[in-house]
Design goal:
Blueprint (H helix, E strand, L loop, with lengths): L1 E5 L6 H14 L4 E5 L5 H11 L8 H25 L3 E5 L2 H11 L4 H11 L7 E6 L2 H9 L14 H17 L3 E5 L4 H15 L6
Parallel strand pairs: 1-3, 1-4, 2-3, 4-5
The structure holds thymidine-5'-phosphate.
Length: about 210
């Protein structure tokens, strides 16, 4: 089973991924966590280029192609072999991030983004995607707790950008059946319980 977690920066998905991994391991399920961009040696190098604030001259075309390059490597080197071995895979972001951030956020036409996905991921798509949704007010609150020097090239983007990204995610969730929207403002354990319930429903009781 391939599960992806999506959402705007600071939505809390990494906490939920950790809790879900622990839950599945308690059930003796083999599970691997991948992150995007990154997850292989080559993809991690691309991540460094993408997120470095030094690269403020990066064009949006370069950006979208680098995200796709990182993903193309991850899919072939890690994701496909893991899924073939029967492992569960949880990915901290996947191709929907490119649709939301570079498509809706940066304004690259969605038909171009879809064609890029065809090369980078082909038909290796998540079975289930959790969108952890939080308001822009909450993003601002959570951002205040982090010093500016710790924010990466994308996290320093303004509120208007993140508003577009959030809208994009919600549009995607409406159009794709594999999406489950979770209110990220709820209490951490409550969110976790919801996620576990949905996974159990999805696997028809295989993970009890
Ligand atoms: P992270 O902070 O969740 O590790 O993700 C890195 C940043 O990259 C985050 O701000 C979202 C952004 N991103 C994109 O803009 N497009 C993508 O395709 C992916 C995977 C991430």
């Amino acid at each position: 089973m391939f599960i992806s977690f999506e959402g705007i920066d600071f939505c809390g998905k990494s906490t939920q991924i950790k809790l879900l991994k622990e839950y599945l391991e308690r059930k003796n399920i083999v599970v691997e966590i991948l992150r995007e961009p990154g997850g292989t040696e080559i993809s991690e190098q691309v991540r460094t280029i993408l997120l470095s604030k030094k690269n403020n001259l990066m064009t949006l075309e370069t950006e979208v192609l680098l995200f796709a390059a990182s993903r193309a490597q991850l899919v072939r080197e890690k994701l496909i072999p893991l899924l073939q071995s029967g492992s569960y895979v949880i990915s901290d972001r996947f191709h929907d991030s490119t649709t939301a951030y570079q498509g809706y956020g940066r304004g690259i036409p969605l038909n171009i983004i879809d064609n890029i996905h065809k090369i980078s991921v082909s038909d290796t798509l998540p079975d289930l995607t959790f969108l952890i949704d939080i308001s822009l007010e909450e993003v601002e609150n959570r951002k205040l707790k982090i010093s500016n020097s710790e924010l990466d090239r994308i996290e320093i983007s303004d509120r208007i950008f993140f508003e577009k990204v959030r809208t994009g995610y919600l549009e995607l969730a409406k159009s794709e059946k594999r999406f489950v929207v979770i209110n990220g403002l709820e209490e951490v354990n409550h969110i976790h319980d919801k996620i576990v319930t949905i996974i159990n429903q999805h696997t028809l009781g295989n993970v009890k």
